[in-house]
Amino acid sequence: MISRLSRRGFLGGGIAMMATPPLAHADDPYVEFQDGTKATLGGSMVATEEQYYDPALLPPPESEIDFPIEPVNPRLIKKKYRRTQVYFEGNEEPGTLVVDPDNRYLYHVLAFGIANRYGVGVGRAGFAWAGNAKIGMKRRWPRWVPPREMVDRDERARKWVNGQPGGPENPLGARALYLYSNGADTLYRIHGTNEPKSIGLAMSSGCIRMLNEDVADLFDNVIVGTPVTVRPSKGT
Predict the structure, then answer these.
(1) Of residues 207, 208, 211, 215, which has the active-site annotation?
(2) Catalytic residue among 101, 191, 226, 230
(3) Domain ranges within the chain, ordered by starting residue
(4) What is the CATH number of domain 74-230?
(5) Cα(229)–Cα(208) distance, integer angstroms
(6) 225 belongs to the catalytic site
(7) How far is CA 47 from CA 20, 53, 54, in A?
(8) What is the pTM of this model?
(9) Quick check: is 191 catalytic?
(10) Collapsed DSSP state (helix, strand, coil) of residue 219
(11) Which of 147, 144, 152 is nearest to 194 (CA)?
């Protein structure tokens, strides 16, 4: 019996690790995602609406080039959003990442009462996400694969339906930390940006943006499995 399931849940399984599959015939046995995309039980993709997602693009590869990270002129960033070590009042365990979306901060808890604080950009109204997750994957200069919803609404994303190679023009920036919950990709990321002026603003599609130099610093100081807490927004 063919079942209908979410794209997120399906990609959380082994198909995401497969080599590039051939394009399937439309009458092959398949599962259908909620967004209308179909995949054969053998792992090949069935094209729909002239575009399709290739599961071999996940997990996203890193760029073969480790591009230099150009420091941002600090004058472009408000002082309160510059990286600093602060007193931390939360109860989270050392090692945890805590995102405070209303104040546009990400904390890396070093010990009880001490954290490195980074300024971030967060999701705009209607795209914010909150909850508990873990870092499930880390990538340097990663390929960006826009979600189907973004492809549908954003013409600029449509040209990258099968992924934009990593590099300085890539919206994921220099590093990306992929947030997982219950073993499945949430599709939310903590990542760099090629738009440093977005730090301190709410304008992303739900992900947490950091300066490239800041996310590179964080990347080197966290491991896969690190717990992440994104606090609920009060709408400020």
Answers:
(1) 207
(2) 191
(3) 4-57, 74-230
(4) 2.40.440.10
(5) 12
(6) no
(7) 15, 8, 10
(8) 0.73
(9) yes
(10) helix
(11) 144
